[in-house]
Amino acid sequence: TGHYTPLPFGCSPLSRPLEAYLLYGIVNLDKPVNPSSHEVVSWIKRIMNLEKTGHSGTLDPKVSGVLLVCLNRATRLVKAQQSAGKEYVCIARFHSDVGSLQKVQKALDLLSGACFQRPPVISAVKRQLRVRTIYETKCVEYNAKRHMAIFWVSCEACPSDHYPCNRFTMFVVVLASSV
């Protein structure tokens, strides 16, 4: 039954007025490096002349990435977005050759599961020890000539957005050379 049944309330997205989007909308924003998440959200609030705005998680100023900005009544959804799992694509540069893609992947596999995490000294969030779960890791590419790797991480929401990259880069060098 893939038929569309019109309901007596609401309207089709094609005929929805712009005011409805501003009242219940979410902006999927690629935050650039340098401004803080708070600055970006306040710019959107001022430019779009909105009463309330909220974001789904703090990205440190030095980090670029996806920032969901909830508009007006959609700010009620912020808590659900903050607790959702996150995915990161990390680029790591090693000091020396660590072998092969398989060695890097073995090292990444050892780091999956529950782990302790404390945000770095310069961070937008409170520095307290937390337990976070790393669900899955995958080494996408390893370049032995440049001593660089690209890997993907699926994890529980981290209070510090660049934490998975820092943690994996630090441990993968040690583990890959001993695996």
Q: Which keywords apply here?
A:
179 residues, 2 domains, Pseudouridine synthase, PUA_sf, four-stranded antiparallel β-sheet, 5 helices, three-stranded antiparallel β-sheet, PsdUridine_synth_N, alpha+beta, pseudouridine synthase activity
Walk me through the structure:
The chain is of the alpha+beta class. The protein has two domains: 13-81, no CATH class; 85-178, Pseudouridine synthase (2-Layer Sandwich), CATH 3.30.2350.10. Helices cover 28% and strands 28% of the residues. It has five helices and seven strands; from the N terminus they run αβαββαβαβββα. The protein has helices at 18-24, 37-48, 78-82, 101-110, 163-178; strands at residues 26-31, 53-55, 65-71, 86-93, 113-117, 130-143, 148-155. A four-stranded antiparallel β-sheet has the order 4-7-6-5. Strands 1-3-2 form a three-stranded antiparallel β-sheet. β6 (130-143) and β7 (148-155) form a beta hairpin. α4 (101-110) packs across α5. The radius of gyration is 20 Å and the shape is elongated. The relative contact order is 0.17.
**Strand line-up of the largest beta sheet:** 4-7-6-5
| Total number of domains | 2
The overall average pLDDT, rounded, is: 78
Derived from helix and strand composition plus strand pairing, the structural class reads alpha+beta
Number of strands: 7
CATH class of the largest domain: Alpha Beta
In DSSP terms (H or I, runs of 4 or more residues), the helix count works out at 5
Basic shape: elongated
Largest β-sheet summary: 4 strands, antiparallel
**Would you tell me which CATH topology of the largest domain applies?**
Pseudouridine synthase
Uncertain spans, ≥5 residues at pLDDT below 50? none
CATH architecture of the largest domain: 2-Layer Sandwich
Strand content: 25-35%
